[in-house]
Amino acid sequence: MYKIGLTGGIGSGKSKVADLLAGWGAAIVDTDVIAHELTAPGGAAIEPIRHQFGPDVIAPTGALDRQAMRELVFDSPQARIQLESILHPMISSVTRQRAGAARGCYLVFVVPLLVESMAQSGRWRDQLDRICVVDCDPATQVARVQARSGLTPEAIARIMSAQATREARLAAADDVVLNDAQTSVDDLVRRSRVLHDKWCSLAQGQSSSLAGSRS
Q1: How is domain 1-26+106-205 classified at the architecture level of CATH?
Q2: What is the pLDDT at residue 149?
Q3: For the chain, which terminal residue's Cβ has fewer other Cβ atoms within 10 angstroms, N or C?
Q4: What are phi and psi of 111, to 5 degrees?
């Protein structure tokens, strides 16, 4: 399948764009959704995390206490490495399984830290046909995240500081969907639809080329 990497900073609206693409027939594999599943009550990552970090990072519900873990990894780079060593292989395994079973006009991997992963390890670089960034200004990111999560601006700034800069994401992009404070729902739908139609055409061209090479 033709493969798109969809990314963007926290609060950019990439999940909304992914939902639109899914509604038009794209297959979606969202690594953030997978991470939440793995750290939900009974998730495969809970016991390894409890073993590594102790019970204080597990909420009474049995899920990962995301606030406690967030504070821990921000204060300790070693803790971040340990958490990633638990989660990343699990996320990669589930991602491969879901990609293998995916059906659609093209396949979208929603990866919040796509640009960061490519910069650090080159991961994803040879797995994608195009990279699409959902872009907005930092002030809009902060406002959106604060409205939906109640996090303080300081906490949001810390999260954003651990992510790639807006400039780095845009430099890595083949396609961009602008979703700033002035973007209406209709604007976002229209911009996303233009890219969807483009990717469908590219996917069909790839399929025709592969079919021709086999004949």
Answers
A1: 3-Layer(aba) Sandwich (3.40)
A2: 85
A3: C
A4: -130, 100
**Average pLDDT over the chain, rounded to whole?**
92
* Residue extents of the structural domains in the chain: 1-26+106-205, 28-103
What CA–CA distances, in Å, run from 148 to 10, 154, 196? 11, 15, 27
In this predicted structure, the answer to whether residue 178 has a pLDDT above a threshold of 60 is yes
Cβ(13)–Cβ(112) below 8 Å: no
Is residue 127 within 8 A of residue 6, CB to CB? The reply is no
Beta strands 107-110 and 27-30: pairing type?
parallel
Question: Burial of 6 by CB count in 10 Å (0-12 exposed, 13-18 middle, 19+ buried)?
Answer: buried
Which range among 48-62, 84-98, 150-164 shows the weakest confidence by mean pLDDT? 150-164
Of 132, 95, 169, nearest in space to 5 by CA: 132
**What are 104's two structure tokens?**
């659609």
Residue 197 — φ and ψ, nearest 5°?
A: -65, -40
Q: Taking a C-beta distance cutoff of 8 angstroms, is the pair 142, 153 a contact?
A: yes
